[in-house]
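=== RUN LOG ===
request id: a7f3
mode: sequence -> structure
chains: 1
length: 297
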Amino acid sequence: MFVINPVSGKRKGAKGDKIIRYIDREYRKAGEMYVIRVWDQPDRIDLIVNEAIEGNFQVIVAAGGDGTINEIGRRLMGTEIALGVLPMGSGNGYARHLGYSRKYKKAVQQILRAEAKAVDAGEFGGFPFMNNAGIGIDAEVIERFAQSETRGFRTYVRLATKAILSYKPFDVSLTVDGVREYEWKNLLLIDIANGTQWGNGAKVSPLSDIQDGYLEAVVLQKTPFIEVPRLVKLLFTGKIYRHPNVRIVRGKTFEIRRMAKGNAHVDGEAVILGETIQAQIHEKSVRLLIPTRRAKG
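=== RESULT ===
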C-alpha cells in the first residue's frame, strides 16, 4: 500500500499526481500487487493503516516527509507490516539517512528491490519517533517553518538565522540510563537522535545508527554569532561533534528537566511538552524497507 500525502513538500499536490502515475506504471510492469491511498484528510490515517493491517498487507509506503513517516511508522510499531519510505517532504531527513533517492523515480525502483529489516524507534515525551526529537532552537524554527507560506531549504535557513539572533538560551538537567547526570546552562538545543540528520543534509548526529539499540543526545550550547558559519559547515559535513560547544551522549533512556514547559519537535512536527521529558529507545520495534544499496540521487 502506498499512502500519498499530497501536501508534503513545497510543491503541494502537483508532484503527487506524477508519482501516482509512475507507481501505477512501474508496479504493473513488475507484476507486483499494490494499492494507492491518498491521505487527503488528517483524521483518515487511522482508517488507512487499519485497512492495511486487516487486509494483511506486507508493506505500507509513506510517501511524504518525516511527519508522514512518523504518522504511519508509529502505527506500525510492533506489527509485521514493513514501513517503506518515498521522500516527498521539504527536508527528508529519515529518507536521506536510509539512502533513498530524492528523485521519486529512482526511489520507487529502490522500494521495489528493498529488504525489510528490524530497526529501532524512539519515544519522546510520550510521542513515538522514527528519526529524532528535541527541544530548543530547532523546535522554534520548526514551529515558524510550519506557519510559513513558503517551504524549502532557503526558507528554513532564513528562519534559522533569525532564530539564532533572537533565541533565549535555556538550562537543563539530563539523566542518562538512570545513573549518569549532567547539568548544562545556556543551551540552544538538545536533540534525541535515532537517525543521523534533520534533513537537507544537516547531520545533527552523524554517528547514530537505527539498528544499534541506542539513542544519542546532541547538546548545543550558546555559540557566538561569529562562530555560526563554522558550526554550519561542521553540521553539513557530518563533523558537528568537533565543535567545542557540542556534546553527544549515548544511552537508552533519558530524562530532561527544564525550567518551564515549551516548544518541542517530534520528527519535525511541533508539539508542546512539559518541564520534565522522558525519552527512550524501542529496540527493533519497526520493520523497515531499506535500500539494498545507498543512492546518491
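=== NOTES ===
The radius of gyration is 19 Å.
The CA atoms of residues 233 and 240 lie 8 Å apart.
=== END ===
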